[in-house]
Amino acid sequence: MEAARLLARLNSDPTPQDEDEICAWIEADPRHGVAFARAEAAWDAAERLKSAAAEVNLPPLEAIVSEEQQRRLSRNIMIAAGIAIAFFIVAAIVTIRTFSGVDRYETAVGQIRDVALADGSTLHLNSNSEAEVRFTDIGRKVRVLKGEASFDVAHDKGRPFDVEVRSALIRAVGTAFNVRMRPSVVELTVTQGTVTVHSGDSGLEKVSAGSGAVIQSRSIDLTHLSPKLIDQRTAWRDQMVELDGETIEQAASEFNRYRRAPILIGDARVSSLRVGGRFRVSDSREFLSALQLSLPIRAVNGEDGSVMLLYRDEPDAADNAMAPSE
């Protein structure tokens, strides 16, 4: 009913204030935008149907319907045309609001960047990451395009802070949280306050400080996180990699996020060995030295800067399972 009322306003010479109110309604809930998009798709289908009818040379309208039926049909067509025009106006407004005034931020491999936003919030970008930011009078929106980002959100009750990551929409007012795009899921970690999360057809979920979520296109799985795990997930903010019993394969994958030439596993026996410690993201040599000192591992440098990890057959080192923590 609300959508119909707004469409009627748009179809009767809308003022700029009308347009602002309609945009506010659309941006207030992702489902509103979906409703308009579906209606627009239905109108496109109707237009295609009209074109198809013209191509097959249907007889004139008066030849197949009575005069009264013609009047009714004409009135319905006029109503449908008015609705279509209204949808077009809404689409134009939303397009302008969505794509104008966008600021893009990105980091190179190995670079970590802090960005002070216009509202007092801070965007933190991890290595090889990218995000778009756009602020309007009625909302604050960020789209994470790749990598990992962390947010310290300035409180503004009148302007929600929305973060889009793949199919997920995360909304906050004043809080702090971290999002990481993994190959098939989005990993959410909330460190302060509460956010709401919506993804695809899933219901709206609340995630509070000390909790996280694994977000897929049609599901949201909530998890409670220990303080130690939260520190580990956000260690990159201090330009550190924190390991706590991860396999060598997992550890190498973490360091490869900050290296242009990768650390490679050259022996299957190396992959399952485990390591712990805290290392600077900019100095993987320290990590490699720890591996060779504490585990049966030999690191071989490649000409392109890559490093191959091989198993070292030495009985005295075979029983070590963890590198010492700093």
TrEMBL record:
Pfam families assigned: DUF4880 (PF16220), FecR (PF04773)
UniProt superkingdom: Bacteria
Residue ranges annotated for the FecR N-terminal domain, each copy included: 2-41
Species of origin: Sphingobium scionense
Entry GO MF terms: sigma factor antagonist activity
This protein's name: Transmembrane sensor
Signal in keyword set: no
InterPro entries noted in UniProt: FecR, FecR_N, Ferrdict_sens_TM
Keyword annotations from UniProtKB, A to Z: Membrane, Transmembrane, Transmembrane helix
Residue ranges constituting the FecR protein domain according to the UniProt record: 103-195
Gene3D superfamilies xref list: 2.60.120.1440
Classification via PANTHER family: PERIPLASMIC SIGNAL SENSOR AND SIGMA FACTOR ACTIVATOR FECR-RELATED, PROTEIN FECR
Membrane-spanning intervals of the chain: 77-96
